[in-house]
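We were asked to recover a plausible sequence for a given structure. The inputs and outputs are reproduced exactly as logged, with field labels preserved.

PROBLEM: sequence recovery
POSITIONS: 373
GIVEN STRUCTURE:
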């Protein structure tokens, strides 16, 4: 009973999966339906309306039954042909994963290195595009979850990419729904996110918007992928309101409920709430003498809070104390930053109360470990 009670009180403050409201969790246990029947057709239509609202696009947004990496593989496999050059500003763990996906489809990633804690600036991308002839695509991780860094120049980088004649692919996995990202206005050709972060639904679906330029190009080419063929998903949606392959029906129910909640709240209010919670986190951390990891304020993420762990503190002990004594789960760093920073997800249904509880737990746990701030 103790552990069950504790589990109920636990707040999942990692950078995804995030906390999910009971309303969305309840949708998961609805009786299954035929994915080739009229109830599903209506469900998919409702989801599509919600997704177009969330992505701020008139173009199709495809729900794929896979995690975020699958969503990125969808984007890359549809665009990258063998030998294609793909520009990838590299400033963290998930940028490196993009490079691996490009290589897996025979493309050549052109890495432009940016120090950890910083984001690529417009000038860096412009210079790289000038140097390299015929770049097929530029891929930007909009919010590097491993360093808590957002890309402030995203809109201008997307514009420069289009002017160069390249496709613009956005990994918006850890910020879409929490940070402004108007897909059509900014001219993003393929924008990828997932259910388990700012949308606040369980993990298991990736969501990808597909712009007209990509569809036009695909119509002239032989498909390079079966499961991820954008044209197939589109044909099935347009002709039948179905997916080509069996979708995760419970997750479709949950996503639909989460999207309804997002439409009720409104995007502007949702972005404001995320920003205010992030600011409250940064302010609270600085009051404790803890330094956010991003180099400057404009690089600080509105959804993933990364901060330097005080050197004298043991990461495993800190995380374990927070979980056992306060029911708060936070994340360590990733890759080379594993032991030097900790990360807090500030996404989805995050609120000022949740921020306060998390900061109090951090302060109390640090104090137990002898840190005075
Ligand atoms: C920016 C970014 N890209 C890609 C991924 C990979 O997503 P998944 O673990 O759902 O495959 C993540 C996961 O945290 C992420 O934050």
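RECOVERED SEQUENCE:
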């Amino acid at each position: 009973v103790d552990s069950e009670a504790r589990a109920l009180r636990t707040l999942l403050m990692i950078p995804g999966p995030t906390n999910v409201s009971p309303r969305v969790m309840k949708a998961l246990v609805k009786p299954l339906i035929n994915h080739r029947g009229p109830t599903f057709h209506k469900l998919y239509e409702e989801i599509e309306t919600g997704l177009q609202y969330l992505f701020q696009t008139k173009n199709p947004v495809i729900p794929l039954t896979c995690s975020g990496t699958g969503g990125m593989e969808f984007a890359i496999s549809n665009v990258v042909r063998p030998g294609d050059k793909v520009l990838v500003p590299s400033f963290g763990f998930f940028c490196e994963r993009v490079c691996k996906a490009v290589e897996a489809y025979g493309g050549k990633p052109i890495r432009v290195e940016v120090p950890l804690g910083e984001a690529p600036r417009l000038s860096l991308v412009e210079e790289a595009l000038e140097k390299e002839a015929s770049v097929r695509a530029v891929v930007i991780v909009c919010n590097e979850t491993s360093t808590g860094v957002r890309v402030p120049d995203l809109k201008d980088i997307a514009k420069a990419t289009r002017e160069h004649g390249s496709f613009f692919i956005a990994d918006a996995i850890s910020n879409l729904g929490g940070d402004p990202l108007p897909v059509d206005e900014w001219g993003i050709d393929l924008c990828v996110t997932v259910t388990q972060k700012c949308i606040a639904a369980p993990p298991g679906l990736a969501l990808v918007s597909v712009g007209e330029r990509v569809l036009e190009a695909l119509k002239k080419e032989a498909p390079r992928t079966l499961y991820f063929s954008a044209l197939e998903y589109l044909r099935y949606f347009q002709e039948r309101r179905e997916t080509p392959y069996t979708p995760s029906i419970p997750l479709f129910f949950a996503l639909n409920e989460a999207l309804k909640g997002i439409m009720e709240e409104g995007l502007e209010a949702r972005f404001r709430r995320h920003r205010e919670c992030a600011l409250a986190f940064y302010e609270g951390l600085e009051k404790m003498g803890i330094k956010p990891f991003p180099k400057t304020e404009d690089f600080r993420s509105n959804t993933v809070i990364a901060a330097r762990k005080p050197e004298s503190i043991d990461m495993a002990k800190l995380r374990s104390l927070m979980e056992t004594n306060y029911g708060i789960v936070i994340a360590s760093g990733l890759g080379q930053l594993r032991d030097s920073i900790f990360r807090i997800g500030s996404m989805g249904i995050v609120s000022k109360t949740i921020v306060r509880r998390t900061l109090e737990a951090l302060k109390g746990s640090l104090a137990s470990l002898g840190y005075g701030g």
